[in-house]
Specification:
heterodimer; A: 175 residues; mainly alpha; Rna Polymerase Sigma Factor, Chain: A; Arc Repressor Mutant, subunit A; 67% helix; globular; B: 417 residues; alpha+beta; 8 helices
C-alpha cells in the first residue's frame, strides 16, 4: 500500500538516501499544503510555510517514529508553523467561517471563488478531504491512509462536504 | 449529484495547487541537489530559467517524441472504442469494470502480456532500427526522452534533430496506431518454452507489425465468477523482434475490495524485457488501474508506466494517467528523467481529445525543460499534422528519406503465418 511505500522511503531518507526525497514530497506535500492553506487562507503564505515545513521536518526526520503515519506527522508540523505565523502577525486563528478569507491582507493572488467558499463553509477536516480527493487527486483510500480514518469515513465525510459546498454554491448563484 | 462541484474544483485545481518551484527550493535548502543558477532563488521570485536556442530545440524534439510515443502506444487504446477488443476480451460489450473505458479492455493476464509485448517490442524494435538492424539495444537507447535529447544535442539544427528523433520512433507510432487494437494468436512453442504467442497490430497503411512471445507460465491462481473462469499467471520467456531476442518476465496480480455497496479494485502488473545479459538493464511497462463505485457513480483510473533501467538505475520513467468519469476523458503524462547529479527532472503534459471541423485533434499542453509547450496534432487519415504556435510540422515532409521509406515496406512483416 502507499503508506508502506512511504514509510520505506522515509527510512531511506533517514539513512541518508537523498533519492527518497522526491517520492516523499510528491506523496505528502499536498496534504501539508491544504492543511496550511486552511489556516492561512492565502496561497503565497501557504507555499512559504509548505517550504519551511519540509525543510524543518526533513532536517529532523530522525525524530519521526517509524510506522506512526508520516503524513500526519509532517502535516502537524505544517499546521504548527502556520499557527505560529499567524501569532507572529498578531492575528487570530480564522475559525469564523464568515470571516473574509483574505483578512490577512497579504493575498496577491485572487483564487477562484469555489476555494474561498469551501474554506468558509467546510470544517477543517471536510476541507482537507475535499481538497485532497478532488483537487490534489488522491484516491479516497490514500486520503484515508493520510488522515488515519477508515475509507468509509472519508467517503461519508467527502459526500457530506460536497453536498454542503454544492448548497453554498447554489445559494451564491455560482452553480 | 455532486458532479458539478467536483468538476468545478478540478477545473480550477491548477490555480490553487502549490507552485512546483517550492519543491526545488526545499531541495536546495536541504542540500539535496544543486538548482540551476538564476532559476529558483525564491519560490515566489518570478524568475525564469534562461533557455538557449539549442535547449529550446531539444524541448521541441522531446515534445515531438513524447507525442509520437503517445500516439503510438496510447492513442490506439484511447480512441479505438469501436475497434476490435484485444486478446482475452471476447465480447467488447462485456464490462469487466463498471464504466469501462477503452483502457479498461486490458483486464486479464492474456491481454496485458499481449499489450506489453506489442508496446515494449515496438520501442525495442524502433530503437534497434537506429542502432543497427541486427543489434539488440541497450537500455539507455530505449529511454525516449533521453534519446531525444542526445540526438538533438548532436544535430546541427532543430529540424535535423526532429527528423532523427521522429524517425527513430515513427515505426512505433505506425505499428501501434490502429483502430484494430492489439491482437494475439497462439503459435507453435519455441526456444524451449511451452507457449508461443504472436502479437500483431495493424498500421495506418494496411501493414502489420508483429512480435513473437515464447513463454512458460507460472500459475498465480484462478477465479470463477458466474460461470466464467479467469486464470492469472506470471510468465518467463523471450520476446522476439525483427532484429533481436530479449529475455522477458511478466506478472499479473489483482486485488478487489467490496464493502457497504462500494467497490474498489487495484491491480499491479508488469511486463519487462531485459536488454543486458546481467538482467540489470531493462524496459518495463506496468499497468495499475483502480475503480471506485459509490452512489451509483463510478470512477475509473488507469496508469501506464514505462520505466527504463540501466545497470539497475532508473534513467527515465514516463507515466500516463488515464481517468474516465461520466464519459469524460482526461489523460496526463509525467516524464521523470535522471539528471547527472542523481536527482530526477519532472515534466508534465496533458492531452485532450477534440474534434475540429470534423477532424480529430489531440491538443497537447504542458511544460518541458521548464518551458511551456502547446501544440495540436491533427489525425488526418494517413498521417499526423503537428501544428505549433509558430507553424506547421507535417509528417509528409519526411517522405524523401529512403531509410524511412524502408521502414514501411510491406515485407517487414516477418511473422506472417
Amino acid at each position: 500500500m502507499t503508506s508502506d511505500r512511504l514509510e520505506r522511503h522515509v527510512s531511506r531518507l533517514k539513512e541518508g538516501d537523498a533519492g527518497a526525497f522526491d517520492y516523499i514530497y510528491e506523496h505528502t506535500h499536498r496534504a501539508v499544503y491544504f492543511a496550511v492553506f486552511y489556516i492561512l487562507r492565502d496561497k503565497m503564505l501557504a507555499e512559504d510555510v509548505l517550504q519551511e515545513t519540509f525543510v524543518r521536518a526533513l532536517s529532523a526526520v530522525g525524530q519521526y517514529r517509524a510506522g506512526t503515519n508520516f503524513t500526519a506527522w509532517i502535516v502537524s508540523v505544517g499546521k504548527s508553523l502556520a499557527l505560529t505565523l499567524l501569532k507572529k502577525r498578531g492575528r487570530e486563528v480564522a475559525t469564523d467561517f464568515n470571516a473574509d478569507p483574505h483578512s490577512l491582507g497579504t493575498s496577491e493572488t485572487e483564487l477562484p471563488f469555489v476555494f474561498d467558499l469551501a474554506a468558509k463553509v467546510l470544517s477543517e477536516e471536510e476541507y482537507e478531504i475535499v481538497m485532497l480527493c478532488h483537487v490534489a487527486g488522491y484516491k479516497r483510500r490514500e486520503v484515508a491512509e493520510m488522515t488515519g480514518m477508515p475509507v468509509s469515513t472519508v467517503t461519508w465525510k467527502n459526500n457530506e462536504a460536497l453536498k454542503k459546498l454544492k448548497a453554498a454554491l447554489q445559494q451564491e448563484g455560482s452553480l | 449529484m455532486n458532479k458539478d462541484v467536483k468538476k468545478l474544483l478540478a477545473e480550477h485545481r491548477d490555480e490553487i495547487l502549490p507552485d512546483h518551484r517550492v519543491k526545488e527550493k526545499v531541495k536546495r535548502d536541504l542540500g539535496i541537489s544543486s538548482v540551476r543558477e538564476g532559476r529558483l532563488a525564491y519560490a515566489h521570485g518570478g524568475e525564469r530559467a534562461f533557455t538557449s536556442g539549442k535547449k529550446a530545440a531539444v524541448a521541441v524534439v522531446a515534445v515531438l517524441l513524447i507525442a509520437a510515443l503517445f500516439l503510438g502506444v496510447f492513442l490506439p487504446l484511447w480512441l479505438s472504442g469501436g475497434g476490435a477488443p484485444p486478446t482475452g476480451q471476447t465480447d467488447p460489450n462485456d464490462p469487466v469494470h463498471p464504466g469501462d473505458g477503452v483502457f479498461g479492455t486490458i483486464t486479464d493476464a492474456d491481454s496485458f502480456y499481449a499489450y506489453g509485448a506489442a508496446s515494449v517490442g515496438s520501442i525495442l524494435a524502433s530503437a534497434a532500427g537506429g542502432a543497427g538492424d541486427t543489434a539488440a539495444v541497450t537500455a539507455s537507447e530505449t529511454a525516449p526522452l533521453t534519446a531525444a535529447r542526445d540526438a538533438a544535442a548532436l544535430a546541427a539544427s532543430a529540424d535535423e534533430a526532429q527528423v532523427a528523433i521522429v524517425g527513430k520512433y515513427l515505426s512505433l507510432v505506425e505499428s501501434l496506431l490502429s483502430d484494430g487494437g492489439i491482437k494475439s494468436t497462439p503459435v507453435e512453442p519455441g526456444m524451449g518454452c511451452e507457449f508461443g504467442m504472436k502479437v500483431e497490430s495493424a498500421d495506418l497503411i494496411g501493414g502489420t507489425s508483429g512480435y513473437i512471445l515464447y513463454y512458460n507460465k507460472n500459475s498465480l491462481g484462478s477465479e470463477v465468477d458466474e460461470g466464467e473462469r479467469e486464470d492469472n499467471y506470471s510468465i518467463k520467456g523471450y520476446l522476439v523482434t525483427e532484429s533481436a531476442t530479449y529475455p522477458v518476465t511478466g506478472n499479473y496480480q489483482t486485488e478487489t475490495e467490496s464493502e457497504d455497496g462500494e467497490h474498489e479494485s487495484e491491480s499491479e502488473l508488469f511486463f519487462r524485457a531485459y536488454t543486458d545479459e546481467g538482467m540489470r538493464s531493462y524496459i518495463e511497462v506496468t499497468q495499475e488501474y483502480e475503480t471506485e463505485s459509490e452512489d451509483g457513480e463510478t470512477e475509473n483510473e488507469s496508469e501506464y508506466v514505462y520505466s527504463v533501467y540501466d545497470a539497475g538505475v532508473l534513467v527515465e520513467r514516463m507515466t500516463v494517467e488515464y481517468e474516465e468519469e461520466q464519459n469524460e476523458l482526461e489523460l496526463n503524462m509525467t516524464i521523470e528523467r535522471r539528471r547527472a547529479d542523481g536527482g530526477y527532472e519532472r515534466e508534465e503534459l496533458s492531452f485532450e481529445d477534440e474534434v475540429e471541423d470534423g477532424v480529430r485533434v489531440i491538443a497537447v499542453s504542458g511544460t518541458l525543460d521548464g518551458e511551456p509547450v502547446s501544440f495540436r496534432i491533427y489525425v488526418r487519415g494517413d498521417h499526423y499534422e503537428y501544428v505549433f504556435a509558430d507553424g506547421t510540422l507535417d509528417g509528409d515532409r519526411y517522405d524523401d528519406d529512403d531509410d524511412w521509406d524502408d521502414r514501411f515496406d510491406d515485407d517487414r512483416d516477418d511473422f506472417d503465418d
